[in-house]
Amino acid sequence: MTRVALLQIDVSDTEPVDVRIKRVLDLVEGLAGKCDIAVLPELWHVGAFNNAALRPHAVSRDSELITSLQAATKSAGIWLHAGSFVELHDGDKLSNTSLVIRPDGTVAEFYRKIHLFGFDQGEAIMLERGDDVVIVDNSPVGRAGIATCYDLRFPELFRAQQEQGAQTFLLCSGWPTPRINHWRVLIQARAIENQAWFIACNEVGVNGDYILGGNSMIVSPRGDIVCEAGATEEILFADIDVDMADEWRQSFPILRDRVMR
């Protein structure tokens, strides 16, 4: 069995960014001996809807924020999906970039968010979208596909990851309360249609003009909700059997009956 921790962080604007970063690093270090892998939310350092903070808090991949996350992960001796951060790259370009860190502190993968939310506002016009489908190999949750928030609405990304052998999807998010019913349904749908584990970490609090919805959750390859958080900050733990994905695909082989049009 693999023990997973979801760190559902409060990203309310009343907390200074530097204070939150220190607090979250302490939370990560405090997970030593308590889990095999932990997941943080999207843009947890500034909050997913704090558009004014995107450029002022943009950093490179070798910044102090990233090296501090690597050090905290190594101290805890766990795998960490470190949520996402505002990446400054190629001059003055910005991306919503997530990363996965190994227990030795090295970075396993970076992923730039492909689907940008905002409908010609906010993230959609301020950030550069990614192009690459990213898979992490040999993690405690097997072969894991990486995605971020709004990606959840686009099944093609997860099908592409499943076709590359993903047994688990890891999603960091800043999903708001008004559409939290979509969150729950879509996570279950992505798990069911791909017969894969879905591990999704959301954030909470008042950020920008939105209230973040929480409800971080883990859904099994059969579509069962294994655990689900509430609407306040908490660390949610659950034990999962990664092999269930392969076993369910073999015993109920729906994927072989796909017909492409």
Q: Can you characterise this structure?
A:
Helix 1 packs parallel to helix 2 (64-76). The protein has 261 residues and is an alpha/beta fold. The strands form 3 sheets. Strands 5-4-3-2-1-14 form a 6-stranded mixed beta sheet. It has a 6-stranded mixed beta sheet with strand order 6-7-8-9-12-13, with helices on one face. The model has no long low-confidence stretch (mean pLDDT 97). The protein has 6 helices and 14 strands. It has one domain (2-250): Carbon-nitrogen hydrolase (Nitrilase/N-carbamoyl-D-aminoacid amidohydrolase), CATH 3.60.110.10. It has helices at residues 17-29, 64-76, 123-126, 155-163, 180-194, 244-251, and strands spanning 2-8, 37-39, 79-89, 93-101, 107-112, 135-139, 142-148, 168-172, 197-201, 204-207, 210-213, 217-219, 225-228, 234-240. The longest helix has 15 residues, at 180-194.
